Amino acid sequence: FYEQVILQNAVRQAGRYAMTGNHVADPQHPGQYLSRVASITSVAQTAAVGLNVSNISISSLAGGSGSAGAPGDTVTISLTTNLPLMTSLVAQFFHNGTFTFTTSATFKNEAFPPNQTN
C-alpha cells in the first residue's frame, strides 16, 4: 500500500501543476518546453520517487482525453497500476498475483494566458 500512497501523491502533485498552465523545460532541447501533457507527466514521474507512471491518463472536460485543458477547464488525472504481490499467501487471492488500483484527482484550471494550452 506504500506504492499506492506514493502514486496518489504523484497524481495530486501533477494536478496542482496542471492547473497553473505552466510547462517544464525540455531536457532534450535547451530553450524549448515540453507540452502541457508531457510536463504534467514529468511532474508526476518526479513525485513518484522511482515508480513508473507510464500509464497516466490526462483529460479535460472540454478537450477530452490527452488534453490538459484551457483556463477554467476541469482536468482529471488518473493512474492505473499493477502491483505484483510478494507474499504468496496474499497473492493467491488476486488475479495473476497482482493488486490493480487506480488513483485519480480532478482540478479546475486557473486563469492562465490561453496561449499556454499547448
Describe this structure in a few short sentences:
By secondary structure, this protein is of the alpha+beta class. It has helices at residues 2-18, 36-47, 88-91, and strands at residues 56-60, 64-65, 74-84, 98-108.
What does this structure look like?
- The protein has 118 residues and is α+β, with helices and mostly antiparallel strands.
- It contains three helices and four strands, in the order H-H-E-E-E-H-E.
- The protein has a four-stranded antiparallel beta sheet with strand order 2-1-3-4, with helices on one face.
- A hairpin with a 3-residue loop joins strand 1 (56-60) and strand 2 (64-65).
- Helix 1 runs antiparallel to helix 2.
Task: Describe the structure using short key phrases.
alpha+beta, 4 strands, four-stranded antiparallel sheet, 118 residues
Query: What percent strand?
Result: 15-25%
Mean pLDDT: 88
Low-confidence stretches: none
Beta strand count: 4
Structural class: alpha+beta
Provide the helix percentage. 25-40%
- The topology string of helices and strands comes to HHEEEHE
Structural shape: elongated
Sheet with the most strands, sense and barrel status: 4 strands, antiparallel
**What is the count of helical runs?**
3
State Rg. Answer: 16 Å
- End-to-end gap: 35 Å
Oligomer: single chain
Order of the strands making up the biggest sheet: 2-1-3-4
